[in-house]
Amino acid sequence: AQTVTQSQPEMSVQEAETVTLSCTYDTSESDYYLFWYKQPPSRQMILVIRQEAYKQQNATENRFSVNFQKAAKSFSLKISDSQLGDAAMYFCAYRIPAGKSTFGDGTTLTVKP
Amino acid sequence: GAVVSQHPSWVICKSGTSVKIECRSLDFQATTMFWYRQFPKQSLMLMATSNEGSKATYEQGVEKDKFLINHASLTLSTLTVTSAHPEDSSFYICSARDWRGQPAGGGELFFGEGSRLTVL
What we know:
The complex is a heterodimer. Chain A is mainly beta. Helix content of chain A is 0%, strand content 51%. Chain A has no helices and twelve strands. In chain A, the strands form three sheets. In chain A, strands 2, 5, 6, 10, 11 and 12 form a six-stranded mixed sheet that branches. Chain A has a four-stranded antiparallel sheet with strand order 3-9-8-7, with no helix packed on it. Chain A has a two-stranded antiparallel ribbon with strand order 1-4. In chain A, a hairpin with a 6-residue loop joins strand 10 (88-95) and strand 11 (102-103). Chain B is mainly β. Helices cover 0% and strands 52% of the residues of chain B. Chain B contains no helices and eleven strands. In chain B, strands 2, 4, 5, 6, 9, 10 and 11 form a seven-stranded mixed sheet that branches.
């Protein structure tokens, strides 16, 4: 069974600084998708970034970027120039094409002014 | 991005009553929707996959008769918590997959706002 592990239950970062959230996963599949979702205090889940496993290039969305290491089964999220609005719970997720998603346990990010 | 609306956002009910939560895809058709349960500061636990026009697929350990799922149209799935008890109090979230403009199997998941159920 696929598993997703987020080893950092809580992280904190100073405003304007950079923070990296870790995620590892376990799978025997070669074709899959990886995601980072943000869940702010409002509880609405928002997609931050996605990565297709067949793409070697790391995905980037403005201040958010990933370090995708397929061989190591690692998928970390880097948030640059952290803002107060980035404070939220972040979930790493995995799924195969057309399959159901598996979520990590989440990392609560605090941004200090 | 696509919009998924969930209603009600919060509900309080008495023990023994049934509560229905709706999940609508507002600007796309969703043949598949997912229902999750989330406890405070924990991850999303998939309860069931809702399939339009057919029976839902429940995850192991989820009571089918307790959590009734109906996906009668391409834009609406409902979760009914029957004979609710205090232990059913939780945050329930739905999501729907938007396949538009995506490669095969690459449909994006969009989430509803969530529904907080409190059973007294």
